[in-house]
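Q: For a teaching session next week I want to show students how multiple molecules come together into a single three-dimensional assembly. I've collected the sequence lines for a complex. Could you give me the predicted structure tokens for the whole thing so I can convert them for display?
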Amino acid sequence: MQLALFWLFSILMLAFALGVILLRNPVSSAMSLVMSFISLAAVFVTLDAYFIAVVQVLVYAGAVMVLFLFIIMLLDLRAEKRRRVRLSAWLGGGIVVGGFLSALSQIVVSLPALHVPKPDVSQPLANDVALVGFALFRNFNLPFQIIGVLLLVATVGVVLLSRKELK
Amino acid sequence: MIPPFALEICVVSLGIFLLMAESFSFKTSKVTLAHGAIFGLLCVFVLSFWTDLPADGLQGSGFYVVDSLAMFFKRFALLATILTLILAIDYLPIVQRLVPGERPEAGTGEFFILPVFTCAGLMWMASAADFIMIFCALELVTISLYIQVAYMRRSLASLEAGTKFLILGALSTGFFVYGITWIFGMTGETGLNAIQKSLSVIPVANHTALLFGLGLVLVAIGFKIAAAPFQFWVPDVYQGAPTPITAFLAVASKAAGFVVLIRVLQPFFTVPAFQEKLTLALVFLAALTLLFGNLSAIPQTNFKRLLGYSSIAHAGYLLIGLAAIGDSFAGKAVVFYLGGYLVMTFLSFLVLVPVTKAAGGDDLAHFNGLAKRSPMLAFAMLVAATSLAGVPFTIGFFGKFFIFEAALNQGLYLLAVLGVIAVASGFYYYFKVIRAMYWQPAGDEAGPVPVSPLSRMAIFACVAAILVLGVFPRFLTDLLP
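A: Of course. Below is the structure for the complete assembly, covering every listed component.
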């Protein structure tokens, strides 16, 4: 059951991700991105990573995507719809993506891990959030502090770059 | 004796203190803030000589490494930030004009404070021994640089540079994270030490996947150090960014990229199966970067753009050194080259800023007749250009000499030949500046070029360093890790 859901949501996620690039209307492509994020959260649930799933919905599908939509609605969308993609751009992108995909598929097929029966990884964890917090503040404290400085700098930058008249 | 990680804490506290001072004391002029930042960073620089290095080098549960390489690059980052701030003080009138504000000095305080935070990020990068740590520090550096590049909001060029830098930076971050996940997936570790241990036990069938991940990481770092074919953002960003930030990008961000590259490649170079392929990839990158940087620098007429292409070319020489890393001296040669690169690049920017202010632009034509208008600046630029080109009796000569020597010792003859050809074309475009200064007549309205005492001091220090180390390179090589 869990495995079937995993594949179902994975396929959904990829389909919506394709929609993000293929749809010409920016609002519909942003909405497919939301759906892709939600499907990703569902994939995390099938892997028993409940905390990451919740954070995925709260942060990405909620906060980040709402901001995205706001910005898209403030922009002029008609220019984007009219834009045509040139043949050379198709060719260049196709070569990069094709090369990348062929390398990726070769590697995935060559991996011995694929031919080995997988161990049962899903052990329902008693207290997911507490464990994540523990890891974050104990083992990963130093990177965590650096992210704090990073957020401070980003906040200062947003104020600097977005205020109409600086005081 | 102070613990090494106190240095970064000092730098971050200095930054927060300056932010507070900027917000709550309305009377202080912004230049005072810059002087405070320079003084504080100098104090940290002096303190860095009193840190005690632990015997095993690893600290903070494997995230943080303190060896002589890390200490060298921490001092490198501090010096680069101090020089950037000196440049920024001189550049202030132009920033004031191009930042929208109620009063002329409004919104310019952060121009001096953000480099301090970038400096902290650079110092963490120098010590990072874990992919998670590398990623966090790298993002701190790049995100603060996005803001600084786009700082002059009324200048379209600055905004364009900021946007291009942001989009390509995000792309390279994507490559970096994806590469890390592959390496993590194959080894189960993010710490570089732990990866080295597990490299010897993983089955050969997994090697392709590991190389794939490492390749993606290499692409991402290629963006940061501006190696071809990932260099296409450089000219526009370097030209559009505020000049002090261009210097910061060209020196500090590139050097940090090289430290990360050295650290990431180290575990993989211990395994012979990887070493061969990595050397091949580095040789390829180095050759392409050298050719591209030098050939496209030749027709440039804008000095900042010229320096952008020249910084790509220098990344090429440094990559030769990395490709020859099997040689015992190659590591030292790369670090020596970076040290020299810091001095000579900042010297040319220290001359460029007063000239831009006096002549109203940063094209090569604005240097016309500089020898008459300011013999001191013209001489400083002469030293910088000859050193960048690699004329003997300058530090640039020994930098290139050591790198070619290491390449020849490793049997990379083709690369060394290519390097010598690149040096020859370098002579041509660096000497265009010298020709403009000494042989072209000045324009009608060109007067003398004023230089502030602080940057005069910095110019003297840089000229002295280039000439002294150009004759006695031993002073620096003895200090190197």
